[in-house]
Design goal:
The structure holds 2 protein chains of 2 kinds. Chain A is an alpha/beta fold. Helix content of chain A is 37%, strand content 24%. Chain A has a single domain, classed as Rossmann fold (3-Layer(aba) Sandwich). In chain A, helix 6 links the parallel strand 7 and strand 8. Chain A starts with a strand and ends in an 8-residue tail after the last helix. In chain B, strands 1-2-3-4-5 form a 5-stranded mixed beta sheet. The longest helix of chain B has 40 residues. Chain B is α/β, with parallel strands linked by helices. Classes of the chains: A alpha/beta, B alpha/beta. At the A-B interface, helix 4 and helix 6 of A face helix 1, helix 2 and helix 3 of B.
Chain lengths: 252, 380
């Protein structure tokens, strides 16, 4: 059985002013999969992500999330927002709130649970990301890896269908990175959340990705798509193999 | 009561086999959409009975996430409150995964949250005393550091960041000119108009010119300008330096061997003390022209007589006194703005606090020093 596409990106062209960042790219994200968007620095990964979560409007083309075209009308966009969660690169935890307040914020807004239930739910969420006991901490009092995990818990607050992660392991030590990777896999397996991850951390790509999309800076489009473990050795494109095998570009 | 009770809906069936033994069969998908509903429905059914045991059957549940786990947890808590036995049966593997992920078996959920205990009043008193002492110490050390930096800059003028100083002069002075001019013009207009109501009764219209010029040049001009600059630039200095502080830019400057006071504070203070007196001069001029408008168009004074009266009233001493005050105000505004910036600690909210406190403190200091000047003048 072929899985259903939950996100469809059709002929997306993104540009800031006269700078074309992405030129006519199309791909699908299937329900329940972990898709990694990768590419060298400045190839438009983050731009693609910003377009997929609706922070930037495309110059041309459409993005359809779970049947709703987020590029057409603003009214429907709010329905889509309930289906997505985003882990920002800097975690974007609210500095004036404790971890539990950060996570409880969307839950209070969008569910009818009682106060005491919300407290327990928040404890469960923090337990999921291995942060039990840190409910009353302010974001400024915890380490970078913990912030990432707390940000993940907040992104998961409403159990969204789709989770977008912007460089979830950037700037973390190998152990913390591995923990985040494991969490991503665990959540994907147990809750069935579709994940779209933007990263260029190689080991993490090979660990978590079921499928990858590789963007290229010069062609401004997708140069590889598929299973990273296969592409690593068998891609026809030299720069894809270079990326996966950490080879520097040969200067001529 | 031996007859079995039945309660059911699309998501659950409650049946009571024997007295105090309840079986809850959950069905379908339990997630964010129905967890609040389920909790509301199940709670009275459990609470009302003297429970001895409760069994939850998950055999017909296809999907359960942490919101579903919350339903189980809350029921478990209710049962525990009544000292009953709680068990879950027919748990599918995927649900087992979720339950272990949230550490469902842990008893910690029934412990009260480790509450942040509020320290008692003595601790509070001590803490704020220490904090205030630290603040005062910083206050004085920053004043000292500014003075030392000034001396350093006087001895080594090359160390002054001229480009920055010029930028701040533009930001503090040129950019503030329109608003200072408008406010002063209107203030002159209002003063002339209000005073003319009284002076007209004595046929002393011409003294409107004296009143407006004396009041503006020696008092209101410097104060109004200083307050506008405090609102525009004092807060901006505090927010700018505060943001640099919390994003570790100031630490970066320090590790590169820069003196942060010379780098950040001195250019701002110098820019302020150069442009604020000039702004004050403009403020005086615009206020007098505001008064002139009223004098000429409403009081039938001629332009020449109004200007002559103004020139006669104003002495050089009066003008210099006003400018001297604005010089002091400028130094105060820039100094307190930088001080609040350097004192910033924490996150986004502390930058806001720094900006607010910069404006409030500088307005307070402006008024305080103005009173000191008034007392000084009376003993002159």
């Amino acid at each position: 059985m072929k899985k259903q596409a939950i996100i469809k990106v059709k002929n997306l062209t993104a540009q800031y002013g006269d700078d074309v960042i992405l030129d006519n790219i199309s791909f699908d994200v299937f329900e329940g999969e972990i898709l990694v968007v990768l590419g060298s620095s400045g190839c438009g990964k983050s731009t693609l992500l910003r377009h997929m979560i609706g922070l930037d409007k495309p110059f041309l083309g459409n993005i359809i999330i779970d049947g709703e075209n987020i590029t057409s009308s603003d009214g429907l966009y709010y329905n889509v927002l309930k289906k997505i969660g985003v882990l920002f690169q800097s975690s974007a935890l609210f500095g004036s709130m404790t971890l539990s307040e950060n996570i409880a914020l969307p839950i209070k807004e969008y569910s009818d649970l009682s106060k005491s239930s919300i407290i327990n739910l928040v404890r469960m969420k923090l337990c999921m990301v291995n942060l039990q006991g840190y409910e009353d901490y302010l974001p400024s009092k915890i380490s970078g890896g913990m912030k990432k995990r707390a940000g993940l818990a907040r992104a998961l607050a409403l159990n969204p269908k789709i989770l977008f992660l912007d460089e979830p392991t950037a700037g973390l030590d190998p152990v913390s990175s591995a923990e985040i990777d494991e969490l991503i896999l665990l959540i994907n397996k147990s809750i069935g959340t579709t994940m779209v991850i933007v990263t260029h951390a190689l080991d993490s790509i090979l660990n978590v990705a079921q499928r990858i999309i590789m963007l290229d800076k010069t062609t401004k489009s997708i140069i590889a798509e598929g299973d990273p473990r296969y592409l690593k050795d068998h891609s026809k494109n030299v720069s894809v193999r270079q990326f996966f095998n950490r080879k520097a570009k040969i200067r001529i | 009561m031996t007859k079995s009770k039945q309660l059911s809906s699309r998501f659950y069936e409650i049946s009571e086999k024997e007295k105090g033994q309840i079986l809850i069969l959950l069905k379908g998908k339990i997630d964010i959409k129905n967890s609040a509903y389920l909790l509301k429905e199940l709670t009275p059914a459990i609470k009302g009975n003297a429970l001895s045991s409760l069994v939850i059957d998950l055999g017909k549940v296809d999907y359960l996430d942490d919101f579903g786990a919350l339903v189980l947890l809350e029921t478990k808590r209710l049962v525990a409150e009544q000292k009953g036995k709680f068990s879950i049966v027919n748990v599918k593997d995927n649900i087992k995964g979720i339950l272990s992920l949230v550490n469902f078996e842990s008893n910690e959920y029934f412990m009260p949250l480790k509450k942040y205990t509020r320290p008692n009043i003595l601790v509070h008193l001590g803490e704020s005393a220490i904090q205030n002492t630290d603040n005062i110490r910083f206050f004085i050390s920053f004043l000292g550091s500014v003075i030392l930096s000034f001396i350093h800059v006087c001895l080594h003028p090359k160390d002054l960041r001229i480009d920055d100083t010029i930028t701040y002069m533009k930001k503090t002075g040129v950019d503030a000119l329109p608003i200072v001019a408008l406010i002063s013009f209107l203030l002159g207009l209002v003063m002339a108009f209000t005073s003319s109501l009284q002076l007209q009764q004595f046929g002393a219209n011409i003294y409107v010119a004296s009143l407006v010029s004396i009041a503006m040049v020696s008092e209101l001009g410097p104060i109004m300008t200083a307050i506008v600059v405090a609102g525009r630039s004092g807060s901006a200095f505090a927010a700018e330096i505060g943001t640099m502080k919390i994003s570790e830019e100031i630490d970066a400057l320090f590790t590169m061997g820069f003196n942060t006071t010379i780098f950040l504070a001195v250019p701002r203070i110098i820019a302020c003390i150069i442009v604020v007196p000039i702004l004050t001069l403009f403020s005086d001029l615009f206020a007098i022209s505001g008064g002139l408008m009223v004098g000429v168009f409403m009081l039938d004074l001629s332009t020449t007589s109004y200007i002559n009266q103004t020139m006669e009233t104003l002495t050089l001493f009066e003008v210099m006194w006003g400018l001297g005050k604005s010089f002091v105000f400028a130094a105060l505004i820039a100094w307190i703005g930088c001080l609040r910036g350097f004192q910033t600690r924490g996150g986004a909210d502390s930058v806001g606090n720094a900006a607010t406190s910069a404006v409030v403190s500088s307005i307070f200091l402006i008024i305080l020093f103005d009173s000191i000047f008034a007392v000084l003048r009376s003993y002159w």
